[in-house]
């Protein structure tokens, strides 16, 4: 099913489908899994690998996919290097949420569009910082339920995690940290190794770490986890992801520390495994930061995608009267 959204003052129609967005009158799709001749892939964290004839992505996104034997036919593009395809002028901007993650800035004959499905304003040492551009039309992804809710301070959560790990390791208790493998695991490895804490990571994370290091990120010392031989080390295990084979059980012994990716409490991997403590290091922006991003881009129209699009559109009306939630088949579009 397709729905068209004609901006009130601009000339390009955005077609919303069950499989990503389409700029009507062009060959370009945005984060489409199966449709179109050309699609933009915003990051390796998307729960699919596009099957389009050609995929626009950053080199680091491609490297992460290739490390798991996923290789779309890719037109590799660099950040801040404008290029053209037909009537479309494009530029990839760092999203700040994952290595290789990008927003897409588009100039057409009638419009300037910024497509930003995932953004992280916080500065993270292992990832290039988020960039924005002013645009007439902003397509913004939201992931958290409450537009008025801010997540705990990232710096304080990092400090709290470090203190907990140091306290446990002092008494020879080696915790198991479960976190997002693409965004948070690298930040934690860097944090702990800089403090001289021995770290071992699951094979999934190990592969992604190597891509980060190839791109210049310094993660410090760590080893690959081995159930028989890894002793007296903090172990980092991944949350499950659809296109990476990650464990749901078989965690090592030790106190379980869980890194939440959002405001809601997640179910830990492994049946009957109690979590000692939870921490919040979100890979994308929270409700409070969304408003700041909208003000910085200053669009004439705002299209919101994500499971809470309608609520955000209502909450943002005072600063953005033309905020429009995008849905497919009357269900939230999950991006």
How widely separated are the two ends? 17 Å
Proportion of residues in extended strands:
25-35%
Give the topology string: H per helix, E per strand: EEEEEEHEEEEEEHEHEHEEEEHEHEEE
Work out the helicity level. 10-25%
Rg measurement, Å:
20 Å
Number of helical stretches of at least 4 residues: 6
Spatial sequence of strands, sheet with the most strands: 1-2-3-4-5-6-7
Low-confidence stretches: 1-11, 329-335
Number of strands: 22
* Structural class by secondary-structure content: alpha/beta
Mean pLDDT: 85
> What about the largest sheet?
7 strands, mixed
- The 3D shape can be described as globular
Q: Which properties best describe this structure?
A:
alpha/beta; seven-stranded mixed sheet; 26% strand; disordered N terminus
Please explain how this structure is put together.
By secondary structure, this protein is of the alpha/beta class. The chain has 6 helices and 22 strands. The chain has a 7-stranded mixed sheet. The chain has a 7-stranded mixed sheet with strand order 8-9-10-11-12-19-20, covered by helices on one side. Strands 15-14-16-13-17-18 form a 6-stranded parallel sheet.
Task: Give a short synopsis of this structure.
This protein is of the alpha/beta class. It has 6 helices and 22 strands.
Present the secondary structure layout.
Layout: E1 2-5, E2 14-17, E3 20-23, E4 28-30, E5 38-40, E6 54-57, H1 59-66, E7 74-76, E8 83-85, E9 88-94, E10 102-107, E11 112-116, E12 137-141, H2 154-170, E13 176-179, H3 184-194, E14 199-201, H4 203-214, E15 223-224, E16 234-238, E17 256-260, E18 277-280, H5 287-297, E19 301-305, H6 309-315, E20 323-325, E21 327-328, E22 331-332
Parallel strand pairs: 4-5, 5-6, 6-7, 11-12, 12-19, 13-16, 13-17, 14-15, 14-16, 17-18, 19-20
Antiparallel strand pairs: 1-2, 2-3, 3-4, 8-9, 9-10, 10-11, 21-22
